């Protein structure tokens, strides 16, 4: 039920994405997307910023001091953000910058605050945005939702929504054109992460490409759901086309949090500080594991050498993601549905199709050492990981990509499918978290990781373009 009322946005975020509105400050070399965080005193603005981007434990928000002046926070995720945490008395005039500079306004209202004051303030900003920046994305976080019982929560949420709409309609029917999105949020559960992720999606120009990569990955890896997460904030940057259900999102978020917590316990002998310095891609959250895995990379190229391409799609990375049970035809890897009758050896190797990359580690791209060890706990509670990593060398760069997995026991019924939750670091700050049927994970592990290589390549290309635009624009 929560999923139904947590956000009132009706159409796809893709349709609502405003034009790229970025500004470079004199002290900053990158152009940042600006987000305005507004609301009355003690509404929870600073808590939201600190919990999401500073890893502040929710309980410690109690000790935050009142914000006396505007504080600008720089956040580097898939797009560079500048979040303005404003004091309660900020007005359009005292803001010190035109609203046209901002891409999004997030207005925070305490869910128990049904009085006029917050609604008047919100309406003031909506009216000003209408004339200054009609493309701005207006988001209302009805916050501290966990404080109320389910029925009261829904009722208060409805009332706040209704009062804002009525007030705008009373002023002028033209304000109805302003698209307002309401979200129920709390720092004490995952609703805040889910809501902020949805806000972020409207700002990511490259979202359709990331989504397409995820769609292709899911289709070819038999994954029912995959997320691309920002590892530090645990916001999901993109997901595949299947609907997001809160339970799955929460599970993936928890797994990421657990990996973030346990990551520092793992250390690789091969990943010496000098190597990590050389790479410039140390992974602060999940350093590589203690064991020494596999041989050192020998090829100077990070690109897998499989010469697989397709004329059907514009992205080489998309084309190259292989399916479970692939066959090589005319130099292409093309999908063939896995046939149960195909004889396989204990490693899942198909005897009928020697060219299949799905079955063995050795058939994976030769220049990437793929070693990842999964942990099968037989429980749905994520346990400390036994991560692995992929090491890839690009020119003089030595890149480490930790990976981990845990199996989740099917809840009930003989027909229930056991699922494995997998984690693969994709870029310095982005990770792919996917649900994979355990049977597929065990039997087609090589292929899965093969697909991850191409997925990673696609995402890195997109991030490079984004960086180039922001840096040069
Ligand atoms: N129950 C609950 N309390 C919250 C939540 N978020 C924030 N709080 C509490 O609300 C209080 C105010 O939080 P702040 O983040 O300082 O609020 P603010 O809007 O920045 O306040 P000002 O700086 O005065 O404008 C703190 O005691 C927080 O612990 C939430 O989701 N649930």
Biggest sheet details: 7 strands, mixed
Helix content: 25-40%
What is the 3D shape? globular
- Return residue spans where pLDDT drops below 50 for at least 5 consecutive residues: 1-19, 275-320, 322-397
Share of β-strand residues: 15-25%
Order of SSEs, N→C?
HHEEHEEEHEHEHHEEHHHEEEEEEEHH
Ligands bound, unique: guanosine-5'-triphosphate
* Number of extended strands: 16
Structural class: alpha+beta
If you consult CATH, what is the topology of the largest domain? Answer: Beta-Lactamase
Average pLDDT confidence is 72
Shape-level CATH architecture of the largest domain: 2-Layer Sandwich
Domain tally: 2
For the record, give the distance between the C-alpha atoms at the N and C termini, rounded to a whole number: 43 Å
CATH class placement of the largest domain: Alpha Beta
Spatial extent as radius of gyration: 24 Å
Q: Number of helix segments?
A: 12
Organism: Cyclocybe aegerita (Black poplar mushroom)
InterPro entries: Gtr1_RagA, P-loop_NTPase, RagC/D
Biased composition (Low complexity): 299-317, 342-368
Region (Disordered): 1-26, 273-397
Describe the structure.
InterPro entries: Gtr1_RagA (IPR006762), P-loop_NTPase (IPR027417), RagC/D (IPR039400). Belongs to the GTR/RAG GTP-binding protein family. The chain has helices at 2-5, 13-16, 45-53, 116-132, 150-171, 191-201, 207-221, 246-262, 273-279, 316-320, 438-443, 445-472, and strands at residues 22-23, 32-39, 71-76, 80-85, 104-110, 137-143, 180-184, 225-230, 236-239, 326-329, 332-335, 368-371, 388-394, 397-408, 419-425, 430-437. Helix 4 crosses helix 5 and helix 7 (207-221) packs antiparallel against helix 12 (445-472). The protein is of the alpha+beta class. Helix content is 31%, strand content 21%. Residues 1-19, 275-320 and 322-397 have low confidence and may be disordered. Strands 1, 2, 3, 4, 5, 6 and 7 form a 7-stranded mixed beta sheet that branches. It has a 7-stranded antiparallel beta sheet with strand order 9-8-16-15-14-13-12, with helices on both faces. A two-stranded antiparallel sheet has the order 10-11. Bound molecules: guanosine-5'-triphosphate (GTP). Residues 39, 41-47, 61-62, 64, 66-67, 87-88, 143-144, 146-147, 186-188 line the site of guanosine-5'-triphosphate.
């Amino acid at each position: 039920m929560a999923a139904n009322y947590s956000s009132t946005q009706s159409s796809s975020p893709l349709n609502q994405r405003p034009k790229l509105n970025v500004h470079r400050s004199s002290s900053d070399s990158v152009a940042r997307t600006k987000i305005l965080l507004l609301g009355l005193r003690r509404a929870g603005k600073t808590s939201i910023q600190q919990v999401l981007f500073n890893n502040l434990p929710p309980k410690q928000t109690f000790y935050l001091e009142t914000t006396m002046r505007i504080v600008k926070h720089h956040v580097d995720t898939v797009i560079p953000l500048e979040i303005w945490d404003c004091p309660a008395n900020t007005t359009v005039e005292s803001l010190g910058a035109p609203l046209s500079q901002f891409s999004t306004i997030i207005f925070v209202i305490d869910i128990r605050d049904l009085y006029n004051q917050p609604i008047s303030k919100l309406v003031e900003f909506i009216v000003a945005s209408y004339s200054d920046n009609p493309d701005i994305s207006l988001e209302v976080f009805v916050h501290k939702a966990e404080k109320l019982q389910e029925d009261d929560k829904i009722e208060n949420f409805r009332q706040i929504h209704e009062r804002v709409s009525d007030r705008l309609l009373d002023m002028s029917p033209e304000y109805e054109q302003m698209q307002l999105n309401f979200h129920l949020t709390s720092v004490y559960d995952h609703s805040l992460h889910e809501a902020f992720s949805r806000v972020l999606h409207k700002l990511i120009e490259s979202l359709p490409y990331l989504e397409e990569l995820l769609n292709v990955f899911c289709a070819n890896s038999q994954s029912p759901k995959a997320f691309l997460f920002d590892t530090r904030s645990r916001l999901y940057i993109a997901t595949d086309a299947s609907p997001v259900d809160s339970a799955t999102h929460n599970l993936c978020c928890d797994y990421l949090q657990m990996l973030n917590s346990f990551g520092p316990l793992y250390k690789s002998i091969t990943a010496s500080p000098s190597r990590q310095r050389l790479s410039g891609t140390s992974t602060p959250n999940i350093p590589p594991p203690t064991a020494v895995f596999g041989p050192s990379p020998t090829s100077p190229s990070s690109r897998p050498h499989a010469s697989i391409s397709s004329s059907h799609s514009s992205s080489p990375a998309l084309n190259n993601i292989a399916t479970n049970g692939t066959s090589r035809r005319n130099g292409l890897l093309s999908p063939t549905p896995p046939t149960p009758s195909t004889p396989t050896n204990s490693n899942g190797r198909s005897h009928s199709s020697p060219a299949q990359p799905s079955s063995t580690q050795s058939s994976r791209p030769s220049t990437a050492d793929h070693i990842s060890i999964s942990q099968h706990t037989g429980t749905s509670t994520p346990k400390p990981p036994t991560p692995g990593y992929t090491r890839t060398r690009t020119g003089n760069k030595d890149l480490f990509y930790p990976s981990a997995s845990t199996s989740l026991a099917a809840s009930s019924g003989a027909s229930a499918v056991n699922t494995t939750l997998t984690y693969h670091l994709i870029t310095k700050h982005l990770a792919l978290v996917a649900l994979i049927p355990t049977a597929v994970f065990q039997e087609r592990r090589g292929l899965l990781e093969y697909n991850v290589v191409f997925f990673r390549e696609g995402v890195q290309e997109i991030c490079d373009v984004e960086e180039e635009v922001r840096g040069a624009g």
